[in-house]
């Protein structure tokens, strides 16, 4: 079994030597012979760059040419591809990306923020220079979902794509459920163990999931990427009691990013939202535990496709980066968003008020006569009917917790209910609303 | 938004007009503009052929050139691709496949039997003629798992691939569980409703899953396809009582095709088996319900990847066929089994006797003193210890059903136990053994 050697190796420059960057180096060392068999040629890292040359990263970097100025990687002689693992929507990453493509070289990136904000510009630049732009690692870590949508589902009109796109949130929610703990406690445990960032807001406020969702939506719908159009709510306000009530009602709580084509007004509008949802136990996403990610795409011929796996981590993310390199080595590349930039449609944003779903509504209330009558009257006036309701003691302080699932109704009815109750002194603290993921 | 027109359309000949063939025609009609945007050119069916020209198939075929002799499709002028949906490992399908590739034309096939038996030969022929050979639709219907393994997981050494590969069996097992019915009754219901073939043996005896497994194994391991090396046992002997006992013990029963590299003897051997297994509820495959398929691949960097979706049906299978056509239209094709045929390794088959797993063992026994002592003594002598055991009445006839899960042990110990009990008159009928799918 000889490694094919008649074709020149693919020469790679690597920018960024954090956990993913060193993971890529380890992967290309450990699996090099196998990758050469699959790619038809060797894939060689030639040059590397990062902010700090002296830091010990646990891998031997002596065999690679060090480039001091990150921006210069774009012009190092003989490189075929630059792998950008620096991060950040703008700054050095974006500069390097632009210069790499301008020089007609392929760019592989794991940078979801940069793709979400500048993907359309970079894709157009890549096409004009006939250079490949690949970002499998930017969404859902090691899961080949970019390729699944771009190629595997290419025959389908996709009107809905959704999933669990943030491993940190899913880890926190699974742990809250398993151990019956509140959000804050699980978060600080996760931070202590290194599973969550010291500043976790990108993860727990849904921004990271929103970056990924905007990329998935563009690929799925053939639309111009629209990160600014993603509504995002995170998981900070979820109580252990919400998880317990949801369980009693037959659901699990998951942070779901969902994008769909809303054709209600006769033209195609795009709806994109990240929010905690109640997921019925009959849905596969209810069984996604821990830091795992999962993406569902609904094609008009394929039906529901599910892609699931590790959403983060050095090794899975390196697997996705190198999958892109293999595609480039094989010359199996094409438009980044599955079709030429000029073919992508700019879709208007859909409003949410008329969207119909079941909802979960939880309120902490004063435990006294007439409170439930007040709440249910507000719901009746808004045209919202109740499927199930649980009232329990909220604590030793004379408060009660009311949790309910409504029948399907427009979101406006929930808004109207909350508006009517806004100044009620029966409600203690802000009510929590979560939508229920449809089948 | 104009359809790109400067590039010539991809011209397709379609052989076989059953449900999948007519599905492909419907898909290419319904999604044609979208597919042209994604593929960069139009995909046009030019010529069609099937056994019976006069049959009403519910689609208008008048716009397509009819070819009387199926074999002639390989040489019709101007065709770029032949889609083979005739079926059967040999015969007209194989003749057409060989002639198509020999003529240097691309071949797309949904024919798992043909690929399992002749895939190595066809792949070598395709390479020698620089023609594409694609078979996404041959495994797991609409799920893009061939591509997921070939491209998405390309960076990984994969040592284990397994899944639910037959929708008919999964439908039967899910229905047995939901309704508490025995196998035979559910099968005849499924046949009456058209969910199962009138001769269901390919499905329920595991042959169909074995075809698919051998293809997945070759792609995953870089090994020469070895259908003859797949051990296959089906689902005929599963009782409603097995499903009930498994549930009590925390498992669901699924027909699992599993292939792995067995490195125990210092060299890489290949192990391939289709059999009903007990799947722990914590495993995602336990939650795959109905005719759905799901494939898990374990990469040394990606970790566990799961691909799930519709395993059969006209529309999902057509989605996979047209995904292959889009790849060909984009010229994103390469070696069929992910690497050149000459690079595929011929791996020796691994023996099963030393494989270690927990097992489920069920026996119907005479309900009298000493029976359990006889069984447990045989297990002790074979070195097999019991994790849990349930004895219940089997019926009104004075028989009992003993179901147990063993601790992990070599398969040989189960074989030895059964051998020791073979001539015991305490056992009524054949014992049932199912392995437990590891985490």
From TrEMBL, chains A, B:
The active site is at 212 (proton donor). GO terms for biological process: methionine biosynthetic process; threonine biosynthetic process. PROSITE patterns: ACT, HOMOSER_DHGENASE. It holds the Pfam family Homoserine_dh. Residues 360-439 form the ACT domain. InterPro entries: ACT-like_dom_sf, ACT_dom, Asp/hSer_DH_NAD-bd, HDH, HDH_cat, HDH_CS, NAD(P)-bd_dom_sf. NADPH binds at residue 112. The keyword NADP applies. L-homoserine binds at residue 197. GO terms for molecular function: homoserine dehydrogenase activity; NADP binding. NADP(+) binds at residues 15-22. It is an enzyme of class 1 (oxidoreductase). The keyword Oxidoreductase applies. Keywords: Amino-acid biosynthesis, Methionine biosynthesis, NADP, Oxidoreductase, Threonine biosynthesis. Belongs to the homoserine dehydrogenase family. This is Homoserine dehydrogenase. It comes from Sphingorhabdus rigui. The lineage of its organism: Bacteria, Pseudomonadati, Pseudomonadota, Alphaproteobacteria, Sphingomonadales.
